[in-house]
Amino acid sequence: MNKDLVWTHKLQCHSDIKSNILGLIDEYEQNGDCPDAVTKTDFYDDTLKSLPNYFNVLGQNANLLWQDICNKYWISDFNVISSWFQQYHCKDFHGWHIHPNSNISISYFLELPDSKYSTEFIDTETNSIFQSNVEEGDVIIFPSHIIHRSPLITDSNVRKTTIAINLNLGDVNTNLINPIDPIFNEKNTN
């Protein structure tokens, strides 16, 4: 696995939307059992039938992120499959896992008290663990099959809040491919 497959985006709207999203998450009452060592999440809430309200706040303000994703993967569109939040306190963590049934996963660090608590990844080619250099307000984007975890929170009186998003990539953007496609170029010069 190439570490270049994991990349970051600085969410310019973070300071504008943080308190609004945290307010919506604070209003949420835990529903369903959480088998993970996570203080609060809506991942296991079977009553949620659509994307949560906090995703709408994020989604409407993340146009540059959506454009960067389309440009990075040379696609014209994508589908948001799911979104959920997770809040971690001292002694919380989320073990090694992947996100099945999606192409791309996103982790938005809504609250990140220390970069040592950012997502850890396994590089299966070098048998090593690595982290991206991120801070609060950053987003990590990566193929959903890459093994990752949220490390153990060891400091008391801190809270980490993330929003996870799974995407399936849509159609190829032929406007990006055509200039480098010899068949397309030959066909159009004759």
Written overview of the protein:
The chain has a single domain, classed as Jelly Rolls. The protein has a six-stranded antiparallel sheet. Strands 4-9-6-7 form a four-stranded antiparallel sheet, with no helix packed on it. The chain has helices spanning 14-27, 53-60, 63-73, 174-177, 182-189; strands spanning 7-10, 40-41, 78-88, 94-97, 104-111, 120-123, 128-131, 138-143, 148-150, 160-169. The chain is of the alpha+beta class. Helix 1 runs antiparallel to helix 2. The model has no long low-confidence stretch (mean pLDDT 93).
Reported CATH architecture: Sandwich
User: Which range does the strand content fall in?
Assistant: 25-35%
Spell out the CATH superfamily. q2cbj1_9rhob like domain
The CATH topology turns out to be Jelly Rolls
Could you give the order of strands across the largest sheet?
A: 1-8-5-10-3-2
State the helix count.
5
Kindly provide the radius of gyration, computed on alpha-carbon positions and rounded to a whole number of angstroms: 18 Å
How helical, in percent, are the residues? 10-25%
Mean pLDDT: 93
Structural class: alpha+beta
- Which CATH C-level class is it? Mainly Beta
Number of domains: 1
Distance between the termini: 42 Å
Helix-strand topology string = EHEHHEEEEEEEEHH
List keywords for this structure.
190 residues, 10 strands, four-stranded antiparallel beta sheet, alpha+beta, Jelly Rolls, six-stranded antiparallel beta sheet
Q: What's the gist of this structure?
A:
This protein has 190 residues and is α+β, with helices and mostly antiparallel strands. The protein has helices at residues 14-27, 53-60, 63-73, 174-177, 182-189, and strands spanning 7-10, 40-41, 78-88, 94-97, 104-111, 120-123, 128-131, 138-143, 148-150, 160-169. The chain contains five helices and ten strands, in the order βαβααββββββββαα.
